[in-house]
Write a structure and sequence with these properties.
By secondary structure, this protein is of the alpha+beta class. Helices cover 44% and strands 20% of the residues. α3 runs antiparallel to α16 (329-350) and α5 packs antiparallel against α7. The termini are far apart.
């Protein structure tokens, strides 16, 4: 007589989990479909956006281009300069608070569906399955002796991996050196030192992380997995095993009282990080939901209700009434911060202008009287030209005709530069009461008066 089926399965699972790398079993279902949808959308954007063109100044340029040499970022019709660093900071804050809010509500959804490590590991695994076969065939190939079949399959797999990693690196560098300029230099082996470095580094990084490290990144390298617990509360919904319904496990499906779990181990076999979700919440769980798809299929086959493994909170598993989101301090705090940063980001974009300037008063001499009876105040204007061409700017006083600019009132500024301009504003003695008076200055290019900016300052009458 052979060993009982349950013991054989348990032995296989122990070997499966503790020896060699993890070869996850393929599974179909709604979460697997959603995961591949996310892979397709994210990679369509990544691999495709660098090929989009955008009309500018009567010509076509790359729509998304980080022009490091000229210190500007092209984002379709928007051109950002180093002076717009605040907007970048707000985008990062929005992304971080959005991630924290999602984690507080539904666990590590980002890790399971959008994290680059998950996305590229899925793509590399897809290649491995097509070359080496399903999870059992791959496991057998890894443990088997070195044969010609093994050499051919392993070599082909690594060649395809290297090709995907190389194209990923080329695409990445193509956002900094326009992709249509980069490819001809690659063909002629004429890439610059920085392009060459990043092509090699990013290609090797992708190959190692997605092809070789895989689940080790989630298990041992990812810092997010270590501090995610501080964002959870008992109402956070994440992939969970309903032990109240599943225990005690009944592998033989006898008539004796037992839970719905038949201890088939399918949830472990499909897990990309090799954990057993029945042991409870673990930092290596990426909330991909593949164990839910697999368990639901088993429950359907044995005639039991689905949802033994599902997205559920501690409160739900303990049959505690569901808590409203506005009664959860973490969720309220993250949502409030997200709204604030989103508002600031939208306000910053709405105020984005191609011409800006700051007005600095001469602190050494607030006002001075001239021999011809004029009272003068001196200012320094820092004029920022955020257009893509050199401009000559003029400055004028807005409103009160008693205040006039004397001396030079124009300055030239290169694209994306800041040009200082010394300006003197004068008024006849006695034309204004003694004290401080409001002053508005306007800067504009004479050839394009529609491009203008105004700033407030003060005029001191002694």
């Amino acid at each position: 007589m052979g060993q009982p089926v349950s013991k054989i399965r348990a032995a296989k699972l122990e070997l499966y989990r503790k020896q060699g790398k993890i070869h996850a079993k393929a599974v179909s279902g709604r979460f697997n479909s959603l995961r591949w949808l996310c892979v397709g959308l994210t990679q369509a954007i990544f691999y495709g956006a660098c090929w989009l063109n955008w009309p500018a100044n009567g010509q076509l340029r790359q729509a998304v281009h980080f022009d490091i040499a000229h210190e500007k970022l092209y984002l379709f019709g928007l051109v950002l300069w180093p002076q717009d660093a605040l907007l970048l900071a707000l985008v990062l804050l929005i992304a971080a608070t959005g991630l924290f809010l999602t984690t507080a509500l539904a666990g590590r959804l980002f890790c399971g569906f959008l994290c680059p490590q998950t996305v590229y590991t899925s793509m590399f695994t897809w290649i491995e399955v097509r070359v080496e076969g399903d999870h059992l065939a791959r496991l057998q190939l890894d443990r088997g002796p070195l044969t010609l079949n093994k050499i051919v399959r392993k070599t082909l797999k690594h060649i395809l991996w290297a090709a995907l990693a190389a194209w990923t690196a080329i695409t990445f560098v193509g956002y900094f050196t326009p992709i249509r300029e980069l490819l001809p230099t690659l063909a002629g082996w004429q890439v610059g030192p920085w392009e060459g470095f990043w092509l090699i580094f990013y290609g090797a990084f992708t190959y190692v992380q997605a092809g070789l490290a895989r689940e080790a990144v989630c298990q041992h390298m990812c810092p997010y997995s270590r501090f995610q617990g501080v964002m959870f509360d008992p109402a956070t919904r994440s992939v969970a095993y309903d032990s109240g319904r599943g225990e005690p496990r009944n592998s033989q499906r006898r008539s004796s009282p037992a839970g719905d779990c038949i201890d088939c181990g399918i949830c472990v076999q499909v897990c990309p990080t090799g954990i057993d979700i029945r042991d409870g919440l673990q930092y290596a769980c990426i909330n991909c939901g593949l164990c839910i798809d697999a368990c639901d299929q088993v429950m359907t086959r044995i005639g039991a209700p689905t949802g033994l493994i599902r997205f559920a909170s501690e409160y739900e598993l303990a049959a505690v009434p569901r808590q409203a989101w506005f009664r959860r301090p973490r969720v309220v705090a993250y949502a409030a911060l997200l709204l604030v940063f989103a508002f600031l980001g939208g306000w910053t974009v709405s105020r984005h202008a191609e011409l800006r300037f700051d007005v600095l008063r001469d602190r050494a001499v607030l006002a001075r009287e001239t021999a011809d009876g004029q009272v003068e105040n001196a200012y320094t204007l820092q004029v920022m030209n955020l257009t893509e061409e050199a401009q000559e700017f003029a400055v004028a006083v807005v409103g009160d005709g008693k205040l006039q600019i004397v001396g030079p009132n124009t300055v030239s500024a290169a694209p994306g530069s800041i040009a200082p301009l010394q300006v003197t504003v004068a008024a006849p003695a006695g034309a204004l009461p003694v004290g401080t008076h409001p002053l508005r200055l306007r800067v504009f290019p004479p050839r394009n008066p529609a491009l203008q900016a105004e700033e407030a300052s003060t005029f001191r009458m002694p």
